[in-house]
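Trying the structure run again after the queue cleared.
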Amino acid sequence: MKALPPGRSPRRGHKARTVQQYRARALRRIVDACAEGRLEPAELAVRSEAAQQATTITGLADVIADIPGPGQAAVAGQGRRARRLILVILGLAGRWPFRALAARVAAAAVLGEVVIDLRRTAVTSFETEVTAVAVAGEVRIVVPAGFRVDASSAVTVFGRTAIAAPPGRGGALTPVIRLRSIAVLGNVLTSQVPPAA
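Done. Tokens:
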């Protein structure tokens, strides 16, 4: 049996993995709270940094201790429509094609990059709320021609939000993407292209 180096225990690697898993859950909770309007963008940046710096589960728990979880939010009467959450932490570009849009979509890139491709998406709802959060990362949204993009709110803190899409014509049958973007040292970019074949 191979001897372990001095000061190293067989459980040390397991503890590090557990802390990393809890860190991902804590960051997800922080981003979710910001997407729901329960945290300001500046607070999102501070808490994300604190979660990255924390080295123990107790330290991570302290960062999110006052943020209610989904169960608590539901008990408090905050109803939720169908939603989809995409979270990338320290990740390279990932492309997510959607078969059908949920009523609410939240995407967050924390030191990473997310590409949401809506070109092959079946229109099941004519109004979709998309919340894009970029913390030292980038969220790119590809919208097909024929969709209308309404920027309901955009908050930037040393970041950039850009929509490269002509304003669509209003109409009862025009699918609408209501975009809420939060860019903290990052970018939220929306572009419009012809539908994929």
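Residues 12-35 form the longest helix (24 residues). Worth checking whether this holds up in the mutant runs.
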